[in-house]
Amino acid sequence: RTQAEMAHTCRGTINLSTAHIDTEDSCNIVLSNGGRTYHLKASSEVERQRWVTALELAKAKAIRMRNNQSDDSGDEEPASQSDKSELHGTLKTLSSKLEDLSTCNDLIAKHGAALQRSLSELENLKLPAESGEKIKAVNERATLFRITSNAMINACRDFLDLAETHSRKWQRALQYEREQRIRLEETIEQLAKQHNSLERACRGAPGSAGSTGTTKGSVQSSKGEASDEDEETEYFDAMEDAPAFITVTADPKHHRRSGSNLSGASEGHPEDWNLEDSVFESSNQSSYNESCKDLLPKKRRRTRIPDKPNYSLNLWSIMKNCIGKELSKIPMPVNFNEPLSMLQRLTEDLEYHELLDKAVKCESSTEQMCFVAAFSVSSYSTTVHRTAKPFNPLLGETYELDRLEEFGFRSLCEQVSHHPPAAAHHVFSKRGWTLWQEITIASKFRGKYLSIMPLGAIHLEFHSSGNHYVWRKVTSTVHNIIVGKLWIDQSGEIEIVNHKSKDKCQLKFTPYSYFSRDVPRKVTGVVSDADGKAHYVMSGTWDEKMECSKIVQSSHGSTSSEGKQKTVYQTLSPKVLWKKYPLPENAENMYFFSDLALTLNEPEERVAPTDSRLRPDQRLMESGRWDEANVEKQRLEEKQRAVRRRREAEAMEALEEGKDYKGYTPLWFEQKVDPVTGELICVYKGGYWEAKDKQDWSTCPDIF
Q1: What SS3 state is found at 256?
Q2: Which structural domain range is residue 426 located in?
């Protein structure tokens, strides 16, 4: 690397030009520079020698590059050294290659001269005339080869001189482009600040337009709250993707009269879209409030937790050494957590379980798909303000949510793997459905943002129809990790497949863009049958609501600028399938928990000793005793490391003795090949609820 590159490398980089390379034994290498030392271990002595040779060559090259940079940096200011190194990077590479060619040329000249001497000596010997002529011809060819190599080196020198002549022109052009970019960034930042000021002024203005205007303003305020970034917010200029289809609302009366005359790629019957005969909910507020009342729990549960303490902590001071690492391997204080484990966050996906209860009543598989799609989107509604990190579950940790009497379902989660972290989840509902999944969280910290990628399929099966749905989650991104207000976004696509009827639903989560004219956090999709015929259009946002519109006609529209032909769907009026519950009062001081989230860590009797509710560091954090929680968290993690080291020692011992070692096996789940996806997945093998009835937890490990 050049010095300019070295100045921008991440912490942990060693400058080879001043490094010391040493060997301890037949397999170990010690690489040190100042106060930083790395111990490397090779698999064999041969491999160690290969690494030492490669490191020595790299060190020699680094020393040569450092000397070259010190030679040509004396007449320039230090501030421009980085720009010069960046601009002349190509020239430095060419110079290095030219040096290699010069070395090869010297070797050719040396060996060519020796060859000519040998040939001259052969000519002086008394040989047949024919042999002498052949030797003379070889001598002439060697001379031509040396002349050609000299010409090649001279041509390379001419090329390098030409590149150096044009370097100043390249520098001026690049400097102009940089200045233009800086001016554009400053203009955009100023516009963003003005836009934020206007939004705040608009929300702060007193409502004087009557009751209708007040209601409208309150909706806008709740929508703009999540994007209320401060002045240092980073905006992303992602290009706005053109939608793959256009939706036009049709007149139901017109189509009822002329439905038989409809033509196109897909047709539907408006008569089927009857609110009284359908399980779809209307979009008016009264029916929504009635559905909320029906879902009130019969058992009285807590409605608040202790307020979050106001502890200040510099995030960057901890995260700067963690760039590029797995989030699960970073030792984090509880200051960045919320008092829930990942198992409880996984269970929180069931907050809108009533969507699946309604889906059971659907006679049409495409109509049922609409409710499943709305359910898959609803699981993200709680994340819009939830930027804190849940606790990483300990290996063998479990979490149960028994709502069989209240809502008809019971849920069980277990941490089945620690590296990589994986959790298995199983939900049974006596109202006619079963859901199961194994989720592995892959996460990367990239300096400015954190990407969270859930891996694994979610399975949902309805008992009466046998419809089996499978889908996967999208990527979550936490922005403004270093500077600004944290905010979260969901992006990607979800494909939901009914493996019995082959119906499909394609949902697209549009990433947030400051320059987009679309509604933030937008989700769109189309439900189609096995023949590819579209039946419903899904639309909404992942933080507020999802609507469904029945397609009565589809046709091909105009061709877009990218050359793609858009499909125009003529639909009936949309119906609201799902709408987010309002957050409880004082939610901003309770980690923005929903009503369900407030009850997830509520102490309960008769749960397994491995249940997340009994985790001491999480309980201390919820109580506001963060310093004690940090100490307890370190104790639990060290206890888990000790168990892992003991397990590794047992595995090594078994290997030396030639015995099989099974390793860790989950308690309530077992690995099987999924017949639908063909993947290896942990599924519930039974026994937990029977053990709870008997209060027999003798098989549970001691993890707390």
Answers
A1: helix
A2: 334-579+598-690
Which segments of 19-115 are extended strands (E)?
20-23, 28-33, 36-41
514: CATH: 2.40.160.120
Residue 464 lies in a domain: yes
- Residue 185's CB: how many other CB atoms inside 10 A? 12
Work out the percent of the chain whose per-residue pLDDT is above 70. 76
Helix or strand run (H / E) with residue 345: helix 342-347
For 175, 187, 363, the CA distances from 181, given in Å and listed in that order, are: 10, 10, 57
In angstroms, the CA 601 to CA 611 distance is: 10
The DSSP 8-state label assigned to residue 579 in this structure reads: E
Is position 220 within any domain? no
State whether residue 606 is helix, strand or coil: coil
Question: 130 — alpha (psi -120 to 50), left (phi > 0) or beta?
Answer: alpha
Would you say residue 116 lies in a domain? no
239: Cα separation from own chain's centroid: 19
Domain tally, the chain: 2
pLDDT in tens, 511-531: 988 777 788 999 999 999 999
Pairing between strand 534-541 and 522-528? antiparallel
What distance in Å separates the CA atoms of residue 394 and residue 416, rounded to the nearest whole number?
A: 9
Question: CATH no. for residue 57?
Answer: 2.30.29.30
Domain edge (last residue) among 63, 79, 102? 63
Instruction: Read off the pLDDT of residues 374-396 as tens digits, 9 standing for 90 and up.
Output: 999 999 998 989 988 899 999 99
Instruction: Report if residue 51 sits inside a domain.
Output: yes
- For 364, the token pair is 């049409």
